[in-house]
Amino acid sequence: MGGKKDKDQAAFGKPVKYDPSFRGPIKNRGCTDVICCILFLLFIVGYIVVGIVAWMYGDPQQVLYPRNSTGAYCGIGENKDKPHLLYFNIFSCILATNIITVAENGLQCPTPQQVFKSLKQELCPSFLLPSTPALGRCFPWSNVTPPELPGITGNISQGISGLIDSLNARDISVKIFEDFAQSWYWILVALGVALVLSLLFILLLRLVAGPLVLVLILGVLGVLAYGIYYCWEEYRVLQDKGASISQLGFTTNLSAYQSVQETWLAALIVLAVLEGILLLMLIFLRQRIRIAIALLTEASKAVGQMMSTMFYPLITFVLLLICIAYWAVTALYLATSGQPQYVFWAPNASLPSCEQVPMNTSCDPMVQPVNSSCPGLMCVFQGYLSTGLVQRSLFNLQIYGVLGLFWTLNWVLALGQCVLAGAFASFYWAFHKPRDIPTFPLSSAFIRTLRYHAGSLAFGALILTLVQIARVILEYIDHKLRGVQNPIARCIMCCFKCCLWCLEKFIKFLNRNAYIMIAIYGKNFCVSAKNAFTLLMRNIVRVVVLDKVTDLLLFFGKLLVVGGVGILSFFFFSGRIQGLGKGFENPHLNYYWLPIMTSILGAYVIASGFFSVFSMCVDTLFLCFLEDLERNDGSLDRPYYMSKALLKILGKKNEAPQGNQKRKT
To answer: What is the membrane topology noted in the UniProt record heading this document (predicted)?
Structure first.
C-alpha cells in the first residue's frame, strides 16, 4: 500500500524540497507575466477610449427624457416647465403592435407628439381627454371613452389601465422613500448587528470550532435519520393502499408521485446511502476532520491577529462598484449615440391626396411641409441614424465593453484573493507568533501584489473571463432557441452548459490556489497554478474533507447571522418588539417588509464579505500546512511552523520547544 501511495503521489510531482532561506512570502521577487500586464494596460487604455468616444457621441437624455415629434426634449432646456409628453391620439398607441420599444428610441407611437400645452405651428390634437402622467407621458384615465373608436372601448380601457398600472409607480415610490426615511437608522443598526455577529462568530471559532463542527455533523446525521424514518412510515402506509408507479405512469403533476410507494422507497434508499457514507467518513476520516478543525481554529487566530483583513472586502466592493458603474455609463452612452432622424408622416397616408408625398423619407422638423393637401402631414422623429464610424461599430464597442466588464471584475477579485493570501501566509510562516508577524502585513501584501503580479492576476482573470463570456453566449443561444422542440438539440445544449459551468468552477478553484502560491513564492501564473494543483492532488483526501467541513461551518455561520438579523428585524419593524422610548420609537411604515428585506440582504452581504476573508485564510493556511509537512521534518534545522495542536494531531513534534526555539539559517 505504501508503494502504491508513493507512485500515486509521484504522478503529481515531487514533494517540496527544504530551502534554508525560505521564511514565508518571498520579499526579493521580480515582475511576473509582464506581457499579460502590458496587454491588460493596453486593454484598459482602449476601454477608456471607448468611454470617451461614447461620451462624445452618446446622449443619455434620450433615455431619461421623452421627446416630441420635432425631437425636442421634455422637461429640460426651453421646455423645462413642460415635463410631460402629450400624444395627439393615444389610441393609436394602444392599437399599435409595438406599444413600448425597449431600445434606444424609447417609447415610440405612430401619432404626433407635442410638449404638453404646446401649440407650436398651430398643430393641435383633435380631442382632449383627462389624463395622468406616467414616465413623463400623459396617459388617459382608464374610464375614458374615445370619441372616434366606440366599438372597441372595452379593450382600449383595459389596455390603458394595464399601461398605467405597469408604468405609473409614483405613489409606490413615494411610500418606499418615506419608509426608508423613517427606518434608515434602524436598518443601519441591523447591519451593525450583522457585522458584530459575523466578527464574533469568526473570532470565537478558536474556542468552539471542534464542538460546533461535531454538533453540525450530528445534526446532519439526525436530519438524515429522521428523513429515513419518515420515508419508511410513508412507504409502510402506502404499501397496501397506495398506487404503484406502473399504474400511475408518467405525468407532469409531480404531486401525484407522493401517493406512489416507490417514490418513498427510492427516497429512503438515497437517504440511507447518504447516512451510511457520512458515518463511514466519520469513522475512517476522523483524523483528517480533526486536522480541518485545527486549521479552522488557527485561521480564527490569524484573523484575530490581523483584524484589518476583515475590512478589506470594503476596498474590493468599492473597486467592483467603480467597474460596474463605468461599464453601465459607457453602455448607456453607446446605446444613445447617433443623430436624430425625421421623416414625413400622416395619419391617413392612404388617402389619394397623400399619394404624392414621399412618406418615411427624411425631412427637416423646423420647416413646415409644403404639401398642405395631405391632412395631418408632419415631419416626425423616427429614430437615430446608424451611419457613421461609431454607429457602424456600435456592436463591436458594446462587446468590447462587456469584455472589459468581466475582465476588470475578475481582476479586482483576483487582487483581493492574492493580497489576503500574502497577509495570511506571513502569519503562518512566522515562527515566533506574534513576534515575527510583519508590522503591516496587509498593506505590504497589497503593495507587493500590485508592484510585481498585476500581470499574473490579469492572466488568470482573462482565462476566467473567456469561459464566462462563452457561457453568456451559450445562454443567449439557448434563449433564442427556447422555442425549438427538438429534444436532441435541447440535450446537447444542456450538456454544453453543464460542461462550461464545471469548467468555470474548476478555473475559479485553480486560480484561487494559484494566487496563494503567487503571494508566497512570487512566481508566474502558470508555474504557480501547476505547483498548487500538484500539491493539492498529492493530498486530495485532506482537500475534500477540509473543503466540506469549511463549507458546512460557513453555511451555518451565514444562517446564524442572516437568520438572527432577519428575525430581529421582523419583530421590530412589524411592531412586535417596542422601541427604546422617546426618540427611539418603532417607525410607522407603509410596507414593513421593505426594511426587513433590506436588513436581510445587507446582513447576507456583510456575512459573505467576512466569511470570504475567513475562507481565504483557511485555504492559505492549508496550502502552507501542506508545504510545511513536505518541507520540514521537526529537526533543529528544519522545524515545523504549524501550531502545537496540529503537531499533536499528526503525532509529530519539534526537537526544541517552539516558543524558545531559534531557527538556524
So the answer is: Multi-pass membrane protein
| CA 219/CA 231 separation, integer angstroms | 18
Question: Which three three-digit cell numbers place residue 247?
Answer: 399504474
β-strand pairing of 131-134 with 113-115: unpaired
| Rounded Cα–Cα distance for residues 407 and 392 (Å) | 25
Q: What single-letter DSSP state applies at residue 243?
A: B
Residue 105: closest CA among 309, 305, 343: 343
- Evaluated on CA atoms 188, 189, 192, 197, the torsion sign reads negative
Q: What is the DSSP letter of 225?
A: H
**Distance from C-alpha of 433 to C-alpha of 428, rounded to nearest angstrom:** 9
How many of the other CB atoms lie within 10 Å of CB of 173? 10
Q: What is the pLDDT of residue 102?
A: 35
Rg for the chain, CA atoms, rounded:
33
523 phi and psi angles, rounded to 5 deg: -95, 170
Tell me the one-letter amino acid at 447: I
**Separation CA 606–CA 41 (nearest Å):** 32
DSSP of 329-391, one letter per residue?
Answer: HHHHHHHT-S-EEEEEE-TTTTSGGGTTS-TT-B--TTS--S-TTSTT-EEEEEEE---SHHH
Q: Residue 490 and residue 478: Cα distance in Å, rounded?
A: 8
Number of helices and strands (H, E) in the chain?
19, 6
Whether 556 contacts 538, CB under 8 Å: no
pLDDT attached to residue 133: 67
Give the pLDDT of residue 123: 53
Cβ pair 534, 12 in contact under 8 A: yes
Residues shown for the chain: 665
Low-confidence residues of the chain, pLDDT below 50? 1-2, 4-5, 8, 94-107, 114-116, 118-122, 142-153, 166-167, 169-170, 660-665
> What DSSP state is assigned to residue 260?
B
Nearest to 429 by CA among 204, 614, 632: 632
For residues 353 and 337, is the Cβ–Cβ distance under 8 A? no
The count of other CB atoms within 10 Å of the CB of residue 523 is 21
Most distant pair of Cα atoms in the chain: their distance: 108
User: E strands along 22-161, which residues?
Assistant: 85-87, 113-115, 131-134, 137-140
DSSP 656: S
- Taking the C-alpha atoms of residue 503 and residue 489, their distance in angstroms, rounded to an integer, is 21
The answer to whether 462 and 407 are in contact (CB under 8 A) is: yes
How close are the terminal C-alpha atoms of the chain, in Å? Answer: 37
pTM of the model: 0.76
